[in-house]
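INFO worker-7 received task bundle
INFO bundle size: 2
INFO processing item 0
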Amino acid sequence: MAALVRARMKGHPAPQHLVDQIVSDAAFLACHRPRQLARPDADLDFIVSIDERLEALVDAARAAGMQAVSAADAALANDAGGEAFLPALLAFERRDTRRIESLLALAEAVPGRMADLASALMWVSARHLKGFVPLLLRHGTEAGRVLAVEACVRHRVSAEQVVAQVAADRTPASRTRALAAIGELGLPSLSPLCRPACADPEPRARFAAARSAFLLDPALDWAQDPLRAFCLADGAWRVPSMQLLLARLPTPHAHELLVRLRAAGASTQQLVDGAALCADAAYLPWLLSLLDSPEQAPAAARAIEQITGLRAPPGPEGFEALKSSCASRAFPTGTRLLLGKPCDAAVAEVALRDGFQHERLAAALYLYDRAGMPGLFPCDAPGWRQMRILATSPAPE
């Protein structure tokens, strides 16, 4: 980085091998960021640290100017993952509409590039996107319309008109993204669009519609029914449906659903994760018994920690310490707990600030549309943006 700065200060081109390395490293970090966020020990401080590394590379690319733009464009010939992130980000910041249009065509032809463009939209500052949402809508491709909604979601802009328009699309990917955005943004005015979409022939659109409607109003039977059907069927939508229902249903109904899941053949891993979301201390004896199973112990320990707030290092010694700590404490049953306390807005916000990522994701569902945070808290947003949202949200009552 220092060599690049010195070269730029002297008006010389930066060493090409250095620019190429910056471009390669940025693609690698952008591609692997979701996996990093899924680590059991990932918390907000960890997210901020990895995002600072990526932002340092992006900043170096900005300093390299057109040299980095050319190198990033050349790297699109590779397919390791993440290569379109930097070209898209620089194009948005430079307001290079022609380059954005070519990247949209690439995303349409190469599905893996869509995630890179969505990441770039998430990363870029909102001020650089002024005027781009209409451009994306007008582009005429499914990729463009998906990304128009993505921009609205990621930057929490007023989006009712855009989301309503794209929710009526015939193309399933754009329709699905818009239906999902209704819940993510907390747009009750668009909830009526979800009801007919709960019968959509496309499963992903059906799930997105039911998820949004259920987030907005968990009492809606017509939203619960498709989610329960997904939950009790062994397929790709079981886990996300289970997570949503168990986190938002009243505790007695969540218990009933977990019993039905077991009868439907849900795996032990799924039942452990479900118990963590039901978050009733009544599940602790069963979870503690799983600490004796090498295969199930790590997940069981995470669930116990999420319910109780206790912390122990991984491994057999930590699992024994967790057993001892639980044996010496009493936790109330019949109520949802988070980090050892009855779950309310204040406790959920503490989890968002200090918890591990799986606890933060649960807290986002518990906290949905409460404490001045409209919609679903974006646990995968850049760390600095998450911190800004938390810093500006009013204190929970």
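INFO item 0 finished
INFO processing item 1
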Amino acid sequence: MGLFKPAWQGDNKEKALKAVEKEMNQNILAEITENAPLEDVRKEAVKKLTDQSLLADVTVKSNDEYVRKYAVGKINDQAILAHISNSCKNTNIRLMAAEKILDQEKVRTILTEIVKNEPDEYCRTKAVSMLNDQTILADIAKNDSSERVRLDAVEKITSQTVLADIAKNYENTYIHQEAIKLITDPEIIQDILADIVRKDKTDTANPEYLVDTGNSIFGMLGV
């Protein structure tokens, strides 16, 4: 017993791929995606997987990044996608799963949690790119530890009142300048200019903020 191992477990690529091509058992294909020593063999096995539960297991258990991503790309079951996006330890896989969820309320909750708790800047940026909630984006624009993430959040804000609040009350140079660039309402622009004058007279803002804000607005007006 155990003297003969399946061809997919060997290092002969041609034989291993032929074994995968002939294999129809979904459980064995799932095993191949996790345990085959050759990368190309694992890839071919996951391409033949259709069982949603097995694809979910592969997404969580496989050490092969390509296999995990390919597996989640084949999952359509909404309950399974929600489970992966909530519990998978790999944030990139969570984001991929979230992109396929139809319930936007669930997606918003998942993305907000990722932005608040994920240490990786790239993953937070990706989550921000998928968000549309103006209140959440405003909070990210004001409070995220990464300036890149904050800028990305500002760029997705369309609410003029939210942009005005950031422009008037957030003194990070790049953030408030970006907010000002996106303001198109003339009354809001006038209000920000009036706020600059008020702060200048009462000395409630640092000079750099006043100059930068004024220059940004005047630049928009072609002055």
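INFO item 1 finished
INFO post-check item 1: The mean pLDDT is 88.
INFO post-check item 1: The two ends are 86 Å apart (CA to CA).
INFO worker-7 idle
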